[in-house]
Design brief:
Order of helices and strands: EEEHEEEHHHEHEHEEHH
Oligomer: single chain
GO cellular component, one term: ATP-binding cassette (ABC) transporter complex, substrate-binding subunit-containing
Subcellular location: Cell inner membrane
Bound molecules: adenosine-5'-diphosphate, magnesium ion
Keywords: ATP-binding, Hydrolase, Nucleotide-binding, Sugar transport, Transport
Membrane topology: Peripheral membrane protein
Largest sheet: 6 strands, mixed
Radius of gyration: 18 Å
Distance between the termini: 42 Å
GO molecular function, one term: ATP hydrolysis activity
Structural class: alpha/beta
Number of strands: 10
Shape: globular
Amino acid sequence: MATSIHLDKITKTYGQLPVIHGIDLQIDPGEFTVFVGPSGCGKSTLLRMIAGLEEISGGELRIDGQRMNEVPASKRGIAMVFQSYALYPHMSVYKNLAFGLETAGTRKDEIRRRVDAAADILQIGPLLQRKPKALSGGQRQRVAIGRAIVREPKIFLFDEPLSNLDAELRVQMRVEIARLHQQLGNTMIYVTHDQVEAMTMADKIVVLKEGRIMQVGRPLDLYNHPANRFVAGFLGSPK
Ligand code: ADP
Ligand code: MG
C-alpha cells in the first residue's frame, strides 16, 4: 500500500535564479525521510515540487514509478501539513477537518467516518465543536495533521510543522508524529532545520545545502560518518 518517490535530476529555477541543482533521491515505501538543512537551502521548494504546488524546472519526479511532473496537486495522493496557523479561525474543529472533503464532494456519512477516525488517532474527539482560538498550540497542530489524515493520502509531507511550538510541546509532538507514522505506515517526508528533530525522527536523513544534497543516510551513520565538514558541523558529530 505504501508508496515510493523517485527524484531524478530535479532542478528549480526562480526567474533566472537556480535554487535546486539536480537532486537525485530514492524514497522507499513507508519510509520516514527528513530533509534537513539551514534556512534557504531549498527544503520547502523541494517539498512543494513533490506536492505539485510548485512547477518542476527540470528532471523527473515519479511516484510508484509514474511520472508526476504534469500531474496536478490534487491528483498526486499527497497531503501536506504546515504550521498550525493555517487553520480556518471561524470554523469549528469538525468543520476544519471536514471542509476539504466537503469541497471535494465527499458524502456526509463518509466525511463523518473519516473525521471520527482522525479524531480518534489524534485524541481530539472532545474538541470537535471548538474554534481554533479555544485550542492550545499542540491541539491546533493535531487539527492541522488531522486535516491531512482525513484525505487518506498515499504520502504525507510536513513542512516545519512544529516551528511555532515551544520546546516542550515540540518534543511531545515529535513523538506523536512518529507514532502516527507507525500506525498508518505511509511514506512521509518531514522538513526541518532542527538537527535534533532530524536525528530522532528519521529513518533516512537527507542533508541539504544551497540546493544540493550533501549526504543521505540513516541518522547514526551520518552522525558517525559525515561525508564532509558541513554535515559534521550541522549534525554536531564529534571531532
Ligand atoms: P528553505 O525551505 O530550506 O528555507 P526555500 O525552499 O524556501 O528554503 O528557499 C530556497 C531558495 O529559493 C531561497 O534562496 C529562497 O530565497 C528562494 N525562493 C523560495 N521561494 C521563492 C520564490 N517564490 N521566488 C523566488 N525565490 C524563491
Ligand atoms: Mg522552508
